[in-house]
Amino acid sequence: DQQVKQNSPSLSVQEGRISILNCDYTNSMFDYFLWYKKYPAEGPTFLISISSIKDKNEDGRFTVFLNKSAKHLSLHIVPSQPGDSAVYFCAASDWDSNYQLIWGAGTKLIIKP
Amino acid sequence: NAGVMQNPRHLVRRRGQEARLRCSPMKGHSHVYWYRQLPEEGLKFMVYLQKENIIDESGMPKERFSAEFPKEGPSILRIQQVVRGDSAAYFCASSPGTEKNIQYFGAGTRLSVL
Questions:
Q1: In what order do the strands lie in the sheet with B65-68?
Q2: Cα(B47)–Cα(B36) distance, rounded to whole angstroms?
Q3: Which member of A72, A109, B4, B64 lies 3.0 to 4.6 Å from B106 by CB, making a disulfide possible if both were Cys?
Q4: Nearest chain B CA: its distance from A94 CA (Å)
């Protein structure tokens, strides 16, 4: 029972262009969403988050959009840089146990020079 | 300011042996979480601890697995009588008391059971 789904195992984007990573969820009780970035042999690093009371949050080159009616969120990276090549995980939590992060399987982003 | 420290980074055990994974949270963090990641999957929550207390262990297998976070020293995830299916990456995260959602992760321990 996958409550958080990242349907694209990998994504290849040209350097300088926009990268769009997608995430879908099924649990309507989720009220907080996070994106983490992970390099090989390292732990996940927090990138950006969004509360369900918002539909957009921006931090530098990273913007997260939340569409609650579609139970969908996306991470936009613009412009994409070679150092952005990593696995990106979407995670969610609900108000009841807000410490228990439910994770997607990840999307491997490859930035081509 | 050191981040979350996990050791060992790699651990090899034979079936039936015990595995002990250690985690020191970030300075000032009193909340510790353990997650397990199988190949090609996302992380799965195992347990949430505060100093000397297990708050939620709903993600822990009922047998062979235990966790502690003593008053002094690191948090320990202990796996007794390991089996091949325990082979995975185990990640520890910590957070300050007031921001539970944003968790900061260590580099993980990769357990291989032969």
A1: B5-7, B19-24, B75-79, B65-68
A2: 10
A3: B4
A4: 10
Contact B49, B76 (CB under 8 A): no
What are the φ/ψ torsions at residue B86 (nearest 5 degrees)? -80, -10
For residue B1, pLDDT over 60 is answered with no
Q: Strands, DSSP E only, in chain B?
A: 5-7, 10-13, 19-24, 31-37, 43-50, 53-56, 65-68, 75-79, 88-95, 104-105, 109-113
Give me the residue label for tokens 């926009």: A18
pLDDT band at B100 (very low <50, low <70, confident <90, very high): low
Q: Which of residues 20-79 of B touch A (CB under 8 A)?
A: 31, 33, 35, 40-45, 48, 55-56, 58-59
